[in-house]
Amino acid sequence: MSQAMILLDVTIVNVALPSIQQELDVQPANLEWVVGAYTLVLAALILVGGTLGDRFGRKRVFLVGLCIFTLASAGCALSQDDKMLIAFRALQGVGGAAMAALTLSILVHAYDPEHRTSAVGTWAAISGLGFGLGPVLGGLLIQAFDWSAIFWVNVPIGVACGAVALVAVEESRDPQARRLDVLGALLAAGGLFLLTFGLIESSRRTWASALVLGSLAGAAVALGGFAAWERRAESPMVPPALVRNRRFVAANTVFALLYFALSGMFFWVTLYYQDVRGWSALKTGLSWLLMNTPFLAASLNVGRLVRRYDGRLLIAVGSLIAAVGMVGLTLLSADTGFWLAAIGYLLIGLGFDLAVPLVSSQVMGDVPPAFAGTGSGILNSARQIGASVGIAIMGTIGVAVATHVWDSKVPTLPPAVQAEASGLGQEVAGGQISQIDSQLGAVAQEPATDSFVAGYHWAMAAGSVVLAAAGATALIGLRPKRAPHTPITPTRPGVLQAEEG
User: Fold this and answer.
1) Homologous superfamily assigned to 2-180+235-406+450-477
2) Can you give 257-308 as a three-state secondary structure string?
3) Is residue 329 exposed (0-12), middle (13-18) or buried (19+ Cβ within 10 Å)?
4) Which of 82, 182, 194, 481 could form a disulfide with 219 if both were Cys (CB 3.0 to 4.6 A apart)?
5) Tens-place pLDDT, residues 366-380
């Protein structure tokens, strides 16, 4: 239930972005923060949540996180401006980090290895219900009320989830749990924040600006310091045994790349259909159901699939199918029929439905039981790091291209509007075509649309490349471990016997 709510909150917010943009007058960079603040805090604190769960009780820490998430959702609904909304979205991330870090570790504790893969597949399917229902539910709520309703909906779900968890979830902890690595947590959180901040700010400032350069330099120092500290820390956030596990590292890398592309795709497709094509939030949400059509079948049958085929190959194939689907979305123009997007949605859904449950299973299968909370936290942190960085990078690419193309088209506009048009690059990059039309007249509508679509194309192309990279990483990094080599020596002519030791 909690994982479904976390994914519900991702997709339901994406479909509401144009409404938030219009009602709170939010520029593209701050619109990225509405999504990015949540995913960034999740990424930074999930490892802390996993460690606290291992040490103080996974059920207890999970319930604390659930309370924070539910209260912060109410705060989001009551927000009066974009800054207040972003702050409560970050607080949602604090609660979500505790929940997301522990869902899989609670599951691992509840099931034996023989049934764990099927259990993870069921977990992924139920999570997918939140992912799939989010856009439709969001569209209905926005149409009936306003954007704040998408946050109010978390309150009754959170209450119900807490009641079930109190009764149904068994408490578990690691008797030899490690201490919380406070310095490591601060360095990781600071580095991720500065990295994302620098990338997002580069969409409205030059790369040579002091703020962008300073943020990226600070991120490099903090993340470098985190890596150095983890090698000498008494209780590192990321245990050395997991860092040295090639398959564990590769699986987390694949997870991050998958959600890098998916989060950026949702951001741009939402603006494309609602701002440029004039779709309602409900129509946009209904169209996304095509991504979830194959979800239940693939996720629930993941155990059967992995027994028949190499899991590494299935992950790679799923990533490449999703990449092809993203190429289809990349080819959309201002007047392309929905058939191309429909094919792209189906392929992306099928690809993710193959890859995500198997990546989750691969990660947790290589984690010792004592590190179940930490391993689950690292997996979910990889997902959120990929999502926050994906929004930042794909957002920066799209905004940079769109504003550049718009600047090149401003001289072709009537002289009377050129001065005003030159200051509207951010609005064009954010897809606010109706605002451009009202301010500059119908003569600017086509250049503004073409500029936005150019930025959209480049951003989506970047997502396609990242998905292909995820497939290649799975093929190379998830190779089975080699069996230990046993030296042999001859004992008498014609006979070979294995040496002891």
Assistant:
1) MFS general substrate transporter like domains (1.20.1250.20)
2) HHHHHHHHHHHHHHHHHHHHCCCCHHHHHHHCHHHHCCHHHHHHCHHHHHHH
3) buried
4) 194
5) 677 666 666 766 777
